[in-house]
Write a structure and sequence with these properties.
The chain is of the alpha/beta class and 244 residues long. Helix content is 24%, strand content 27%. The chain has six helices and 14 strands. The strands form three sheets. The protein has a seven-stranded mixed sheet. β9 and β10 form a beta hairpin. α1 crosses α2. The radius of gyration is 18 Å and the shape is globular. The model has no long low-confidence stretch (mean pLDDT 91).
Length: 244
């Protein structure tokens, strides 16, 4: 066992890119009224509920959007119940400043990655609050989760060696000074950082009509257990109730 660092004074921030990623596909479409309306509906139905039902609310969720879509974002937000104080939509130009502002007085930043259409287990934030970081650990990886087909209402356990469900750990002072881990190729590179793994099935990767790169099947980095696909709707709802 390596030396561990106590819980300390950590700030947990969930970073969600709404339509601010630089993508090779579907880029302009993500700024359209239609796309924003559709994705906002999915966010509110799934991801918002997962965030609001976390057993610990000791976190901030910052949803980053492209500045040029501010008008459409604000219009869609007005259609829904007001977000709690710890969940905020932030324009891309203000995103890093918003993170740094929240780090004052903290020793560590736990920066949680989440897509705007996926879920974390309701205990996930509490797991991070309880986490005792081994010296030198830069990431927490969740390899085990579920894949949920929202169109056919079926769910299956899934595994990914280095999935998009991870948390990066920084010293708050270093992050404010500009330190960032280089993840060449995106989330598959996180496994190359010194890391801890959480054993619970901590996430749900949702397949819906708006997905452009994901399907309900094993491929590349994602492996679903086809022998354990759940189709009974009552059982599916029971599994999802642990996440939202």
């Amino acid at each position: 066992m390596g030396q561990t660092v106590g819980k300390g004074k950590k700030k947990i921030i969930v970073g969600i890119a709404f339509n601010s990623k630089k993508l090779k596909y579907n880029r302009k479409k993500r700024f359209s009224k239609r796309w924003i309306k559709s994705r906002m509906k999915i966010f509110m139905k799934y991801t918002r509920r997962s965030l609001q039902r976390q057993t610990s609310q000791g976190f901030d969720a910052l949803i980053e959007y492209e500045d040029r879509s501010r008008k459409h974002i604000k219009k869609q937000l007005r259609k829904y119940k007001k977000l709690p104080r710890n969940i905020k939509f932030i324009p891309k130009s203000m995103y890093q400043r918003s993170i740094k502002k929240r780090l004052k007085g903290y020793r560590y930043l736990y920066l949680v990655r989440l897509d705007s259409d996926d879920l974390y287990r309701r205990s996930y934030i509490q797991q991070l609050r309880n986490h005792r970081r081994r010296k030198g650990v830069k990431a927490i990886i969740n390899q085990n989760g579920y894949m949920y087909d929202s169109k056919k209402k079926r769910i299956a356990p899934m595994y990914a060696k280095s999935p998009a469900f991870y948390t990066l750990i920084y010293k708050a002072k270093s992050y404010r000074r500009g330190k960032r881990y280089k993840l060449r190729g995106g989330h598959p590179a996180v496994i190359r950082l010194r890391h801890d793994k959480l054993r619970l099935r901590n996430y749900v990767h949702i397949i819906h009509s708006g997905n452009t790169t994901s399907k309900f099947r094993s491929k590349r980095n994602k492996i679903i257990d086809k022998r354990r696909v759940v189709k009974d709707r009552r059982r599916v709802r029971r599994i999802l109730s642990s996440f939202m």
